[in-house]
Amino acid sequence: MVVTEDKTFDIFVASKIGSFKHIKYYTDVSKNSKKCIENLVEIKSLQKDDAITSMVWGNEEQTEILIGKKNQQIQVYNTLQGFTKTYTADFGTGDIVGLGKHKRRLLAALSSGTVQIWSKKENVVVNTGGKLDKMKVYEQDTTLFATGGEENELKVWRIGEPAPIFTAKNLPHDWLQLRKPVWVSDLTFLAPELLAVCSRHGYVRLYDTRAQRRPVCNVEFESMAATCMAPGFDDHHVLVGFGRGQLQQVDLRRGKPDKGYKGAVGAVTSVVGVGGKVVSVSLDRHLRVHRADSKEMIYKQYLTSKLTGVLVQTATSTPLKRGDPEVKEEDEVVEEVEVKEEDMDDLFDNMETVGDKPRKKRKEDAEATEAKKMKPSTEGSTVEIENEDPEEKIVKLLKSTEKQKKKMEKKKREKKAKSVFHNA
Fold it and tell me: Which of 158, 167, 253, 156 is nearest to 214 (CA)?
C-alpha cells in the first residue's frame, strides 16, 4: 500500500483596510478550517490610508513579498522573518499601482504616470506619458516591464533605456469614424514578445511585439468592465476578472471566452491560476478556489474585509505561527455561550402556553351579538333592541341617510350663496 502525503500550498491575501493574511490550503478540503488562517499584521495598528494597492513576489524562490500601500509606503515581507525593509515612494502623487525587482534594484509605479528605479548609485525616474493603472515586470527577464492606464496605451520598457521599446496602437475607427476609447486596467506577460491586456471598456487584447503595433487578437465583452487578469494554464489562455463578479477563461487563439467560473458577487480584484486550480479574491470579502477543468468551486472562505490581491506560494512552503492557531475576526469577536440542560428545562417550564386561534365569527353570531347590545337613550336610560324587527332597522337607516343628504345639500347652497363668482 502506497501512502501519499497531503499536498498543500500557501495563499497570501491583501485587503482594502491594510490587513495581510496567510492561509494554509489543503488539497484535502475537509482539513481546511479557520485554524489554517493567520493575520500577519496587527489589526489595531491599521489606519485609513494603509490600504494595500499592489502585492507581488520579490524573488524566484517566493520567500519575499513586495507590498505597496495607499500612503506610498513599500514594505518587504519575508515569509520566514517577517517585515524586513520599508521604502517611501515620494517621487510623485497617487497610489502605488505596480512593484517589481531586478536583482537589487526596486521598481515602483504611481498612478500619476511615473516609474522609479532605485539603485545604489542613482534613482532613475521614467515618465510613461499618462495615467497608470498597472505596471508589471516580466518574471523570466526582469529587465523588461510594461505599463498601461486610462488613455495610456500599452508600452514595454527595458531598464537602462530612456524610451519604450514597444508602444501599442489602437484599433481603427469604427464605421461611424469614431475613435475607440482606451483604458488598460491590467496586463500580463505570456512570453517576452507576447502580452495580453484587459480594459474597463470591456475588451481583452493580445499583442505580438514582433508582428505589429496593433493587437493580433481582440475579444469584446459588452457592458462588462475587466478589472484583473492573469496567465492561464497554457500560452493561449488568460484568466480575466470583471467588475460584476464574472471570472472568465479567454481563448486568445480562437478569440472567444472558453470557460466561466461562478460564485463571486462583488468585483473580482485578483486571480491566479496554479496547479490546475483558479484562486481568486473579490470585493465580497471571499477567497475562492475553482477546479480549472470542471469549473467546480471546491473552497470558499470569508475573510471579513474587502480583498484587493492574492498570491499563491508553490516554490516553497511557509509554516503557520504557533501562537495564532485561529483567525482573529476584524469586525467583531463572537463569544460562544454554553447553555446547560437545567437552564433549558427551566426556560421551557416558564414559557406561556399559546392556545388555538379563535375561529372567525359567522354572520349569524355577529347579528346575535349586535342585537344583545344596549343602546343609550337621551334620557340616560337604556333600551333593548333585541326584539327589533329588521325591516324597522332598514327604515331607520334610510331616514338617517336622507337627513345627512339634506344637510349636505343645505351646506352646498349656503357655500354657493357666499361665493363671489355666484353673486357676480
Answer: 167
Quote the pTM value.
0.73
Which is it for the CA torsion 57, 257, 302, 135, positive or negative?
A: positive
The edge-to-edge listing of strands for the beta sheet with 73-78 is 52-57, 64-69, 73-78, 82-88
- Residue 419: phi and psi, rounded to 5, are -65, 140
> Nine-digit cell at 105?
534594484
Instruction: Look up cell 426556560; give the residue.
Output: 347
Q: What angle is formed at CA 355 by the lines to CA 352 and CA 360, rounded to 5 degrees?
A: 145
Place of cell 498601461: 148
CA dist., res. 388 & res. 379, Å (int)? 20
Longest dimension (CA), the chain: 115
Q: How is residue 375 written as a grid cell? A: 343602546
Cell of 294: 470542471
Closest CA to 24 of 317, 254, 395: 317
Three cell numbers, residue 62: 517566493
HEC secondary structure over the chain? CCCCCCCEEEEEEEECCCCEEEEEEECCHHHCCHHHEEECCCHHHCCHHHCEEEEEECCCCCCEEEEEECCCEEEEEECCCEEEEEEECCCCCCCEEEEEEECCEEEEEECCCEEEEECCCCCEEEECCCCCCEEEECCCCCCEEEEEEECEEEEEEECCCCCCCEECCCCCCCCCCCCCCCEEEEEEECCCCEEEEEECCCEEEEEECCCCCCCCEEEECCCCCEEEEEECCCCCEEEEEECCCCEEEEECCCCEEEEECCCCCCCEEEEEEECCEEEEEECCCEEEEEECCCCCEEEEEECCCCEEEEEEECCCCCCCCCCCCCCCCCCCCCCCCCCCHHHHHHHHHCCCCCCCCCCCCCHHHHHHHHHHCEEECCCCCEEECCCCCHHHHHHHHHHHHHHHHHHHHHHHHHHHHHCHHHHC
Side-chain-side CA neighbours of 222 within 13 Å: the count stands at 0
* 34-78 pLDDT per residue, tens: 778 999 999 888 998 999 999 999 999 999 999 999 999 999 999
Q: Could you read off the pLDDT of 399-424 as tens digits, one per residue?
A: 888 888 888 888 888 888 876 555 55
Each residue of 84-97: b (16+ CB within 10 Å) or e? eeebebeebebbbb
Cell numbers 516591464 correspond to: 145
Residue 299 has which C-alpha cell? 473552497
Rounded CA separation 306/275 (Å):
26
